[in-house]
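Lab notebook, bench 4. We co-purified these components, and the gel suggests they stay together. Before we commit to crystallization screens, I want a quick structural picture of the whole thing.
Request: model the full complex, all chains together.
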Amino acid sequence: MKTKTGVQRSKLEATFRYLLLSFVAITALIPAYIMFAGSFKTQGEFLKSPFGLPLSPNAAGYRAAWTDNFPNWLANSFLIVTGAVIVTEVLAALAAWGFARFPFKGRETILGIMVSLMVVPPVVLLIPLFQLGVELTLISTLRLVILIYVGLMLPFSIYMLTNFFKSIPESILESASIDGASSFKTFKSIVLPLSGAPLATLAVVNLLWAWNELLLALVFLQSNDKKTLMVGITGFQSRYSLDIPTVMAGMSIATLPLVIAYLFGQRFFIAGLTAGSTKGE
Amino acid sequence: MKLTRVKSEAVGVVSRQRPARSSREAFLWIAPAALVILFIFGYSVVTVLIQSFRYDGDWVGFENFSIVITDPIFLTALKHNGQLLLAVPVLITLAFIIAIALFETRRGMRFYRSAVFLPYVLPIPVVAVVFGQIYQLNGALNIFLKSVGLDFLAKDWLGDPAIALGTMSSVIIWKEVGFGVILMLAHIISLPNETYEAARIDGAGFWRTHFSITRPAILNTIVFYGVIEAITMVSWVFNYVYVMSNGLGGPGNATMVSELYIYRSAFQNKAPELAAAAAVFLFIATLVLMIAFFRIQRRSIAGTFNK
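Here is the predicted assembly.
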C-alpha cells in the first residue's frame, strides 16, 4: 500500500515535471521560432499569423537585409570579436600564470580587486574614454573598441585561468624546474598544452559577450561603415518598421553565428558560465 | 586532507626564502594585463570623479550632484532600477524550480537544458527587437490571448506607461533565467550522492527533499546568482531599454533607467558633467553590490589558494 502511493506520487511528480519543463522550453524557444519563421514570411502573413509556418517561404527579407549594410557590419563584428578575444586570451593567460605560480604579498587582495572590476558598469567608463577617443581621433576605429573590450573582459578571464592554473599538480611543474626549464618554458611547453579546454571555454564566453555588446559599440563606432552588427540592427528596426520580415531576417543573420557556436560548443558555454561560481569550494 | 596541508606549508617555506625574486617575476607576467586594466578602469574612474566636480573646466563642488539628484527624471530612473531589483527573487525561484526539475529528469534532459539555456546566448538587441514585435498591440502575444478567449488580458504591453516596465522585466527574466538554471544545476549535480540518502530513507517527498536539502546545499551558488542579477538590474539593463524604447526610455519616462539617463545626458543633451555626476551615483550603488561580490569571491579565491 505504502509503495503504491509512493509510485503514484512519483508518477504524478514526473508528469508535473514534464509539463513544467515543456512549458518552459516552449516559452524559451518561441521567440526564436517567431523570428526565423517570420523572416520567410510576407508582411501581411506575419501580422495575420505570427505563429504559423511560412506557407510560401520567400527570401525577400534576406535580400533586403543583405543589400543594406549587413556584410559590412558582419565583417566589423568578426574583426572586433576575433581581435579582442585573442588579445584577451594572451594577456589573461600570462597574468593568470603570474598569479597562480608566484606567491607574493597582497596577491589575494590584488586578484580580488581585479575580479570585482567585473561588475563596474560600463556606462561609468563611457564618458572619459569617449572624450579621450575624441582627443586622439580614435572614434570610429576598431582599435579603440578592441582595447576597451579587452580591458572589460580581462578581469573574469584572469580569474578563471588563475583558478585553472592553480589546479595543475605541483609535481608536474616541479619536474620541469628540476630539468632546469625557465618559468617561461614551463609555461609554454607544459602549462599551455594542458589548458586547451579552459582556454576554449574562455574564448567562447568572451566571444558571446563581445559579439552581443551594444552600448560601447554604439558610442565608439559612429560612422556607418564601422558599425558592428548589434549597432546596425538596432537602427535597422526603425528603418524597416513597416517591413517586419526584413527586420526578422536581419535578426536571424545576427543570431546565426551565435547559435552555431552554441550548438557546437555548448559544453564550453556551460563550463565557462559556471566557472565563476563553483570553483574553490 | 592532512597531506595537502603539509604540502602547502612546504610551498610557503620555499616562497619565504626568495620573496623578492618571486614577486619581481610575478610582476613581469601580470604587467601587460594590469596596464590595460589600469587604463580602462583606473583612468576612467578617476577622470569621471574629477569631472563630476567641474563645469566648463571650473571647480564647482557638489553642484552637479545637487542638480542631478533633484532632477525628477534621474529619480524616476533610480526608482525603476529599484523596481527591476524585484525581478531578482523571481529569477532565483524560477531558476531553482527549473534546475531541480531538470536534475530529476533523465529522458530528454539534454534537450530541455539546451532549450532553457538558449535565451541566455541570444544577443540582447535581437531579443529586444523580437519581443518588441511580440508585445505590439497587434502582436503575437495579443493574437494568442485573443485566440484562446483571454481578450481581457490583451494589453498595449509596451505602450501603456503603467505596465511597460513590467513588460521589460519579463523580457529580462526570460533571458536571464537560463543562466541561473545552469549555475544551480551544475552545483546540484556535483553534490555527493549521500546528500540525498537520508531523505530517501525517511521517504521525504520531492519538494521537501529539495527545499530542505538541495536549497541549503547550494546556497552559495544561489547567493552568487542573486548578486550577479542584482548587479545586472542596477547597471546592465541599458541594452534592453535602449532597443525596446528606441533609445528614449518611453513611453514618457516609463522605462527610463540610470544607464540610459547617463547616456542621454552625455550624448544627447551634451552635458557630460551631469552625466559624470550621475555615473558617480551609479558607481556608488554598484560599489555596495561589488563589496558583497568581493566578499563571496574572496572567500573562494582564498579557498583556491589553500587547496
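The longest helix of chain A spans residues 2-38. Worth comparing against the SEC data before the next meeting. The radius of gyration of chain A is 24 Å.
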